[in-house]
Design a protein that fits this description.
Layout: E1 4-7, E2 10-12, E3 18-24, E4 33-39, E5 46-52, E6 57-59, E7 67-72, E8 77-82, E9 91-99, E10 102-105, E11 109-113
Parallel strand pairs: 2-11
Antiparallel strand pairs: 1-3, 3-8, 4-5, 4-9, 5-6, 7-8, 9-10, 9-11
């Protein structure tokens, strides 16, 4: 079993920055992948960024160059640094982890980008 808790969401103006954190209840090096997804009411949940056990990262085209996923192995935290935020980045952001055949999700954190 893996518990994931997101934090760091909030409201920001366009062009601003936020850093989301995902705290895992177990060693993140035991997780095959840890990813950030987002969903707004009008869209499906979509992948934003992911990092695998080896540290390789991948990003949605819409966030490349603006968002950075990283991790702190000692603290079992995975971060999503979001810069140059746009109104279309508004969504609930979820942390997802895979451990063996199982998939775990956090409860989500709201990010609102508005002037």
């Amino acid at each position: 079993q893996v518990q994931l808790v997101e934090s760091g969401g909030g409201s920001v103006q366009p062009g601003g920055s936020l850093r989301l954190s995902c705290s895992a209840s177990r060693n993140i090096l035991s997780l095959s992948t840890t990813s950030w997804y987002r969903q707004d009411p009008d869209k499906r949940r979509e992948l934003v960024a992911g990092i695998n056990i080896g540290g390789d990262t991948n990003y949605a085209d819409s966030v490349k160059g603006r968002f950075t996923i990283s991790r702190d192995i000692n603290l079992n935290l995975v971060y999503l640094q979001m810069n140059s935020l746009k109104p279309e980045d508004t969504a609930v952001y979820y942390c997802k982890a895979t451990h063996g055949p199982r998939v775990y999700w956090g409860q989500g954190t709201q990010v609102t980008v508005s002037s």
